[in-house]
Fold NUDIX hydrolase.
Amino acid sequence: MTIKDTPEEWEIRATDTPFVGNKTSVRTDDVVMPDGSVVRRDYQVHPGSVAVLALDDEDRVLLIKQYRHPVRQKLWEIPAGLLDIPGENPLHAAQRELYEEAHVKAEDWRVLTDVYTTPGGCDEAVRIFLARHLSEAEGDRFEVEDEESDMEHARVPVDELVRGVLAGELHNNCLVVGVLSLVAARASGGVDGLRPAGAAWPARPFEV
């Protein structure tokens, strides 16, 4: 038996969009269940995101700490951002986020993993990249605003992050998934076996 997620789409009898925000919206679908009954499902419609686990030559991960109002916490996270342009190449978006949030560039990029953050209530798909061979970006720093104006930066050893994740001290999903995926990749053949940075992403198709 092959353990693999598969595409499938159940019949929708009716749909509505009761809320449209700046970046996301809420959709209500009347979905036909296997027994023929119709059930209403509300979910957030999201453009998709990218995140970057940037690893330096001392085996430290580049982190930012940012206030997240919905959970009323400042969370340690890896650089991440929205796919603002439909069909945008996720690698280009990830490179932009690493520059804007950390003023860093990387020479080696690979796909670490792809995830749905909360598939029971949101269609957000995130591609997490592994970026290595880091250096300071050229040019002026990106001008930050709002929550980003209060960001902190740090570089933390991988082992310390694993400890923090398992101790329940770190909660950002991209950080947790990214760090544990890195450890798993190293234990199963090494990061050179990861998918190339331009690998297909059915959840958010893009032009190369």
Notes: Residues 50 and 127 are 5 Å apart (CA to CA).
